[in-house]
Amino acid sequence: MAEYDIVITGGRVIDPETGLDAVRNVGIQGEKIAVVTESEIQGKETIDATGHVVCPGFIDMHNHNAGYAFGQKLALRDGVTTPMELELGVYPVKEWYEGLDGKSRTNYGGSVSSVAVREFILNPDLKAAFHGNFVLDMVSPGKSHTSMKWSQQPSIAKQIEPSQTLAKVYKIPLSNPATATPRKLAIA
Predict the structure, then answer these.
(1) DSSP per-residue letters across 40-108
(2) Is the pLDDT of residue 182 over 60?
(3) Which of these, 64, 172, 59, 180, lies nearest to 115 by C-alpha position?
(4) Average pLDDT of the residues of the chain
(5) pLDDT the model gives residue 179
């Protein structure tokens, strides 16, 4: 009988890819699942999962804790192996990814934060303190000097110009609300 590095026994194994939902034993060799079986198996380490679910890690697409260790620990306790900051987003994106490189306990991902981009463009006093994790900058305004004033007052031409420049550089079409043609949406 083969011996695995880790054996998880008696758990309800759920595998969305194959549709499996049954009590099984799982043998892990190295970093890979080597076997999922009803048969008895042996390992250097055994985990009794009776009464528990054994499944692939979950992906959480709305997670504001992906960028720091305690948040990742919370995610892992919930079975989330890939927390992603896709709602508020991150900015500067490169700094956020560099801040996690080689330090993360989970997989991770983030989208560009339009909120943070506007704050960077319109607030010259901003000093990002949390390596692109803008949600933390927002809750620490004394340290990062976030203002969010841009969200409370109409923009002036001087504030709009940097956004227009970025749009031009990245070939993003902008519409002029004064000349835009209204469109009807067809709802089936």
Answers:
(1) --EEEEEEE-TTSEE-PPEEESB-TTTTSHHHHHHHHHTTEEEEEEEEEEESSHHHHHHHHTTT-SS--
(2) no
(3) 64
(4) 84
(5) 56
Top mean-pLDDT range of 31-45, 110-124, 141-155, 158-172: 31-45
Which of these, 61, 10, 62, lies nearest to 36 by C-alpha position? Answer: 10
Instruction: Report DSSP state, residue 150.
Output: G
Domain residue limits, the chain = 3-54, 58-169
What pTM did the predictor assign? 0.65
Fold of 3-54: Urease, subunit C; domain 1 (2.30.40)
- Phi, psi torsion values for 46, nearest 5 degrees: -120, 135
pLDDT over 60 (residue 166): yes
